[in-house]
Each structure stands twice: as structure tokens, then as C-alpha cells.
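Case study.
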Amino acid sequence: MLVTLLSLPIVGGSTRAADRLASRGFERASPAPFASGPRDLIVVCHRTPVKVAQGRFRLDNLPDGRVDLLARCASAAIFTSHGVRRETRLWLALQDQSVCLCLDGSTARGMHPDERTLAAAMKRTLAVEHGATSRADTANGWSYHAGGLEHRLRELRQQRPVSRGPRPILQLHEDGEATLQALLAAGAVLVLGDQLGFTSGEEALLASAGARRATVSPRGLLTSHCIVLAHHALDEAEARVGLAASPVE
Amino acid sequence: MLVTLLSLPIVGGSTRAADRLASRGFERASPAPFASGPRDLIVVCHRTPVKVAQGRFRLDNLPDGRVDLLARCASAAIFTSHGVRRETRLWLALQDQSVCLCLDGSTARGMHPDERTLAAAMKRTLAVEHGATSRADTANGWSYHAGGLEHRLRELRQQRPVSRGPRPILQLHEDGEATLQALLAAGAVLVLGDQLGFTSGEEALLASAGARRATVSPRGLLTSHCIVLAHHALDEAEARVGLAASPVE
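After joint prediction, the assembly is written out as follows.
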């Protein structure tokens, strides 16, 4: 019996990832317009070296420049067992370089959840913006955007259906009081920090955007684990809505 | 302000992991005896090639033989922000090879949560058992054990304090009904499947051990994400106990 709850995905391929996938065709990715409520997650990243932002990092040393952190966040944000979260967009805001990398689940193709494969896709996406030759598989869900957190907040808050109000901003923070479920149900944009948290400027920016704070765990966890918990809260909220909408016999 | 909730750890080192850590001294690890309630997690793994069980896999192709899966489980089981879960033991039962790898948080030293570094530690631990020369950093939390799931269940169920009854077995399963918190509070041993779930023989073994089933998510998730959610349930249960034990003013 296949137990999907506990299984691991291979999306669109078998064992070896980047090399095999390189021979396939991929669509050029661009973030999809807001429709029925995407899950937008912004990770605010600091101290990103120029070489990382230009895609000149080594795949066999991902902790250098904390590319491993970026890759883990991508894996946590997008992958489920044997599939990807099509409704999710992850925004990696590389603050020191005023650049944002987006991984859009709706356009992701042929990915494997290991850190090296995800880092290779990021590296290609970044390098093409800095003179490297584009390949057919350059994008596969990833896209490059100028500007950091401020640009993303402005852009994402404007992406809302006419029938709804502005999207709330939810900052995951150890001092949070808001419950995650309540705000997520309203289509909130989630903002997480990296190992350095948030600068005072980022805190001020989030406060001016009316961000509320929510806590996901009584313990200090990895950013990628916080993403898993945030998804879980949303999944449970959706499951409850689904149950409530089911006919009662 | 450092926000530990959202931060990423570097345990005992800075950026580059395996290479730098290789020059440090590490204790030879062996699983600690059961004392005040360790968190024991068993991941039942299938189709592990001989080359993986003998530590002859390549670090630049971890999806081959699903070493990436093992590494992600290790990262999810052990790491918190800026620290490790000292009370946790992860048992990777490589069923096809009748071998078990253990990562013991109480003896883990100088690790970084990236997949390659964790895989390198596994590779050394496995290779030493198959003729490779031991190095000072071979173990750092990892140990090698003959036998698979059956051996581990027998061993772990015997490790209990005199004052408590036998440790319950909790199988994470999509058809689970038990609540995770209730059983975890009783010092349960958690058993998770890999991408292939459980064989009929493993299901029978778990049933004969009186395993109860629990579900952690309404969606099918990666094994490593299920570990994050299981830890979270335990963390919240512990936090509640802590709150209940606090004096009320």
C-alpha cells in the first residue's frame, strides 16, 4: 500500500535531477496573476554575497552564502508527497542585493526536492540575468525580479480580487499573538526572516504596511520548518472548510 | 533584534561544513540510554542500494539511492534554530540492507543542516563499517547498527524507565485516528515510512507490536515534513505542560 502521507516526491523525473532534466523543455516562468488565493511566502534574506546574487556560487558548497537556506525554503514551500503546491509562490528577497527570486508552484516543472537541484535552478536563473546563456530549462518555475521586500509588499498587496479587501501582511515572529489560521483564511502574505531575523528598517516597513505578527512554534525553528508549519496551518484550515462544506448525512 | 523563531542554525561552525569540520575532534557516538524520555523517530527506508549502505555513494548526486531523503530526515529531526534537539534520536532503518543508521542529538557535534554535510557524515559512518579508515570526525552523532525495523522496535521498547509502562509505538499513517499529542506524552516511539510507505510485512510487524496509527496532516507530505510536524506537536504539548506547571498569579 502506498502511503502518501509519509512519502517523498520525485516530480517529473526519477533519481538524478538537474542533469536529466536539462534535456527537457521548460516554459519561461513568470508569477501568475492573483486569482483564487495563492499562498505567497516572502523570506527576507540578509548578507547575500554578490557572487550568489549573480549565480556564481559553487553547488558543492551551498552553506557558503547560505544558498542551502534558500534551497531548503524552496523545498519546504513547494513540495508535497509526489507533487508540488501549485498555489504557492515563494519570494526570496535578497535584501543586500535588492533582488528577489520567485519560485512559482504553478509553473514549476521537473524538479526534485534536494538542495543541490534547487540551488542549480536558482544559479541558472541568476546567472542568465548576469550574462550567461539561457537554456531551455533556465526557468522551470523560477524568475528574477529587481527590488527587495518593499517592492514585493507593494506588488503583492495590489494583487487581489475585486471582491476582497487588501491582503493582510502576516509577519512570522517569536513575539506574535495572532493566530495563523485566522489571517491565512483572509489571503495574507506571509513574511519570514532568515537566521538574522529582521532589520529595524524592515520592521518599520512591515509595521507601516500594517503587518500583524504570528508565532508558529513555542521553539525557535529553522525558517524552512516554519514554512512547513505555516503550510500545515493552512492545510488544516482548508480541510476544515472542506468538511464544513460537505453534505451532512 | 535576533528573531530565533525564524532563524537558521549553524551548529558549532560557520559557513563551510564538512571540510572545515573534518579537522576537529569528535566523540565516538553511541545512542544514549533511555532516561527522561527521548524522542525516538524511526524512518523505514526501502530500495536502498548496496553502495549506499556501504558508504560508496557520490555527494554530488544524493537523489541516487535517495540519500537526499535520509539527509532531509536528519535535518528535520535534529536541527532547531541555532541548536540541535539533544533529546532526539533518529533511526534510519535501511530495510533492504538490514542496517540502521542512528543520529543521536545528545552526541551530535559540529554539524550544519545542509544535505551534503549530513550525507558526508553518513557516508563516513557507513564506510568505516566496510573497511574505510576511521577519522576523528567519523561519528559526530552518527552510529551504525545491524538489523532493521524489527531489531529497533525490540530494542527501543525495552528502553524505558522503571516507573513507566512499555513505550507505545505510533505509526504515522494517512489512515491514522489517534491524536499525536496524547501518545507522544507517553513516550511513544514514532515510526514513519519513506516514499514507498510500509510493506505488508512491516505493517504486520507494527500491528503485532501494538502500534497505533496517527495522522499529522490532511495532505500527503514529505517524510521530513512529517517529522517537523511531529516535533511541533511534541513541542506544543511540552509547552502546555510547562504553562500548566507555572504558578498562577
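Observations recorded in class. The longest strand of chain B covers residues 39-45. Residues 1-36 of chain B have pLDDT under 50 and may be disordered. We will return to this complex in the next lecture.
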